[in-house]
Amino acid sequence: MADRFPSLDDFDAGQTEPSASPAQSDFLARERAALGDDANLFASSTDNTAPTPAQP
């Protein structure tokens, strides 16, 4: 996530916009990238299903 925000030096120089778009917009893809080989240890059958809204 640090690559999405300007460094403190850039911010002090006036650049306040993110320097690049995120490489992966999918949360699960980012988690798999962060966990590496251990990602499968945390996988479940419901990883790719959308939650249903709670009924009042």
Please tell me about this protein's structure:
- This protein is mainly alpha-helical.
- It has one domain (2-41).
- Helix content is 25%, strand content 0%.
- The longest helix is centred in the middle third of the chain and has 9 residues, at 27-35.
- The model has no long low-confidence stretch (mean pLDDT 72).
What is the beta-strand fraction? under 5%
Mean pLDDT: 72
Q: Any idea how many domains?
A: 1
Helical/strand content category = mainly alpha
Largest sheet: none
Helical percent range?
A: 25-40%
- Compute the number of strand runs: 0
Instruction: Give the overall form.
Output: flat
GO molecular function: structural molecule activity
Family: Belongs to the clathrin light chain family.
Function: Clathrin is the major protein of the polyhedral coat of coated pits and vesicles.
Region (Disordered): 1-27
Structure, briefly:
The chain contains two helices and no strands.
Describe the secondary-structure layout.
Blueprint: H1 8-12, H2 27-35
Subcellular location: Cytoplasmic vesicle membrane; Membrane, Coated pit
Function: Clathrin is the major protein of the polyhedral coat of coated pits and vesicles.
Organism: Friedmanniomyces simplex
